[in-house]
Each structure stands twice: as C-alpha cells, then as structure tokens.
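Lab notebook, bench 4. Still working through the backlog of constructs that have no structural model yet. Next entry is a single chain of 157 residues. Request: give me the structure tokens for it.
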Amino acid sequence: MPWTTPNVFDPFDVLTADNLNDIQDNLTYVYGLGRRRVLIVQCLPFNETLTTGDGKQYWTVPAEFNNYVIVDADSAVYTVSSSGTPTFQIHNLTDTVDVLSTLQTIDANEFSSYTAATPPVINTANDDLATGDRIRFDCDVAGTGTKGWEQHVVIQV
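Model written out:
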C-alpha cells in the first residue's frame, strides 16, 4: 500500500502487525521518492516546427545513473497542435529497444501528455539504464502547427 497520507498512531496503543506494515510501506515509498530524478531534455527549441523522425535528440547515460530504471515519461510542446496527436517514443540505441510499449501522445490543443486520453506505458523489460547507454528521442506524429518539444523522463534506482 503506497503512502498517501501519514497514519497517526496513539503512542499508548500497542502496534499491531498491520500498523507496522503500514509504517514499512510508508517508509519504502518515501525512500523511493528520494531516489527519483527527473530529466528534462529539450528536443526542439520552442519556436521550431515539430516534424517527424527518429533521433530528434540524444542523451548519454552518465555513470551516476547506472542501474537506474525509467519509471515515467511525458512530453510537452510550446505551441499546441491544432489537429492531430503528436506522438513520441524513447529508444535505447545501445540495447536497440523501444522503451515505451504505449507511446506518449499529446491531444490536439493541449500542451503536454500529462492529461492525454491514452497515457504512455513503460515496457519494464526495456527500462534499465547503464552507463554509456545512448537514448534517442523520436517523433512519430507531429500534429499541425506544433512547435517545440521537451521530453520529461523520471528515473529511479
């Protein structure tokens, strides 16, 4: 059970196994949050029109992120698509695998994939990072009039 709000215990109550499990779950959750990092990669300047293609931007995994895994990914644009759904993939060139099993999409007239009708899904078989891995950011659908692109990647050890 992940932590959402802290449980309050009367200090004179006897701690039960359930209470101890709740405390352990809360500590594990908070510990995990402290080990998360958010990467923001500008794949396209804010005033450039988005076009489709592989390798719009690259990132090389530094030694500090060895053994981290990708736990979330979202995209944001600076000018919304008036029609069409901008669609993005993350690809690990070193391992030659796509990281997302369901691609990131930004609905027409929206700035990010955070509220997309279909959220992205990480392929947990392909989410591992190792020192020197080359990560490629791809645009599969550009939409109409879309400008700029930021890639947000959440990693955790």
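Notes after review: The chain has a mean pLDDT of 90. Helices lie at 17-34. Flag for follow-up if needed.
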